[in-house]
Amino acid sequence: MSSTAAKLILPFWEICRFKRPPQDIPASPFLFKLVLCIHVLAGTIINVVGFSIVEACLLSLLMTALLLLAIRILLLMRGHAERILQTGTAFMGASIVLFLPALALRYWFYVIEKSGTESNIAGYVWVCLFVWERFIAAHILRHALDTKLMVGFLLSIAYVFLEFQVVVIFHNAVSRWLI
Questions:
Q1: Are 81 and 98 spatial neighbours (Cβ–Cβ below 8 Å)?
Q2: pLDDT in the model for residue 178
Q3: Strand boundaries in 25-76, DSSP class E
């Protein structure tokens, strides 16, 4: 990995390790757009495992838009509109850091499903990754919203339920469209 890429990824890795708050990320429109593009691309790649490229791309765009909308609403409700750029960049950047383990896990589940077998280990790894991701979100929200970690954690869990509902609606709409 080049030193430029390492310098770009390191702050997000430190957020994932709870060593850096989201306000350490520069409020840079260029960085936001770069991370946004990489986030949508990474989401598309993860979703291609098991879905068509069109559905994977649309789902990635939808999930990214939902994330940014949720961040915007929460920050506006708390009177912290000036933090939208940094918080959005921090969330998407942390998600990019988790891309490789998430992709490997997604592929592992795909192989398990296609082979008709089961794997408790894959389930345990998924739970660990899920919980880590929720605490990363809680860490970012705690700083962005000036609240307690547990409030951030509960908000991140509520977001997962919202995200799940949107994915179900999306898949139902795509299924009807394709039939």
A1: no
A2: 65
A3: none
Query: How far is residue 93's CA from residue 175's CA, in Å, rounded to a whole number?
Result: 31
Kindly give, in sequence order, each residue whose CB lies less than 8 Å from that of residue 67, ignoring residues fewer than 6 positions away. Answer: 88, 91, 92, 159
In the chain, domain spans = 3-178
Give the residue from 124, 158, 126 showing the smallest Cα distance to 141: 158
Q: What is the pTM of this model?
A: 0.90
138 vs 149: CA distance, rounded Å? 6
Q: Residues in the chain, how many?
A: 179
pLDDT digits (tens, 9 = 90+) for 54-87: 999 999 999 999 999 999 999 999 999 999 999 9
152 in Cβ contact with 141 (< 8 Å): yes
Task: Encode pLDDT of 123-140 as tens digits.
Answer: 999 999 999 999 999 999
Residue written as token pair 């986030």:
39
